[in-house]
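Entry type: protein chain
Record version: 2
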Amino acid sequence: MDDSQLIKACKKQDRNAQKALYERYAPAMMAVCLRYCREEEAARDLLHDGFIRAYTQIGTFEGKGSFEGWLRRIFVNLALENFRKEKQKNRFLEEYGYMIDNHTYEDVDDLLDIEDISREMILEMIRGLPTGYRTVFNLFIFEEMSHKEIAEMLGIKEAASRSQFFRAKTILKNKIDAILRKKNGNYNEHR
């Protein structure tokens, strides 16, 4: 069955079609979930909740654009809802998301030399970031959102989004540098 046939059957709540759709898209959606969740179990919960939401909202898919893109938006939005709930519980951004408005940030992308580090290791480092940093980093890098869009979505100032992103990149750079120093022994510590 192609996607359009699966979608039609899912709109009729056909359990076999729902299962087939899950099997087809679960690996890609799990990758999205893992970017937003620190622990694999939380990512599996998000995957489950995301597919339930997709099945209940599949009637709104009009066939414009890719189905995978539509599905991915559901998962990202659900991850953001979870982030907002977590934010309300622990007030993470209020405690750690402050920004000194006059601070200028250096772009550290060019300083990262990661060819010797596996993709899985990098994703694990991203999952290990504090919640606010991880969320902003994922939205900016993987969802290609602007800091203005991120700020509006998360209910923070644009400067706080930039600050969170800069701090996430700095943490990742330091972790990568440490791994490279350990692997290469002669890696310049003062890069």
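Comment: Residues 3-90 form a domain with the Rna Polymerase Sigma Factor; Chain: A fold (CATH 1.10.1740.10).
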